[in-house]
Design brief:
Layout (H helix, E strand, L loop, with lengths): L3 H17 L3 E4 L2 E4 L3 H19 L14
Antiparallel strand pairs: 1-2
Amino acid sequence: MTDLPQLTAWRDALMAARYQGVRTVEYDGKRVTYASDAEMAAALADLNRQIAGATDRISVVRIQSSKGL
């Protein structure tokens, strides 16, 4: 699996291209051309899902104990 900084870099490059109205994105020496804005939106959604999955942390831990009586 790809690490968080790499996913974030890909997302930033894709968002920048989308906001500029460009359908071709270059990163890591690779060039990807998307057929439509909907395809770019789907790729962004997938990247955001992967980033959210990589950053999810447990925020609450509940401990229950008993003396066994």
